[in-house]
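input
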Amino acid sequence: MEEWRLKDTSPQGEMMEVKVDLHSEELDSTLGDVGPLIHDRDPKRVNSNLEVMFEDVIAEPPSVRSFDKVWLWSHALFEVSRLWCYRFISLLLAVPVSLAAGLLFAALSCLHIWLIMPCMQLLLINMRWIQTVWASILNIFISPFCTSFGKCCGQIIIHLSNNKTR
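output
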């Protein structure tokens, strides 16, 4: 049972509690041996930007306030509706989207392994002579120019002085 405590900022400073059951026993009993694996479903923090809390979406400034019970119940309904709507939508979409993503990544992997990489290796093997010729052209024409330009610019000396005469 998940318990939320929201503190009233009125002069009385009452403490109000709302108890909402976010964890059903049916879900926990079906986990079986995969219980420890299911707790951290985002170990690489891919979706850390989706951690949305009630305070991130709805906030009342001190000058305008609703009734305390309205704030309390809206907080509870926000959290429960967010959780159960996500569960319902993921129930409908998770399996088909996972299947489509699996097929897509399998096709991309197959294309990469059996088509793209052999073509790249064939290209690299057959173009080795171009790499040799290009390296020779660079060493004959470009390298001496860059070396002589570096030696010319290496002789430049800059002296900075602060000559303020008053």
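quick obs: Confidence is low (pLDDT under 50) at residues 1-14, 24-31.
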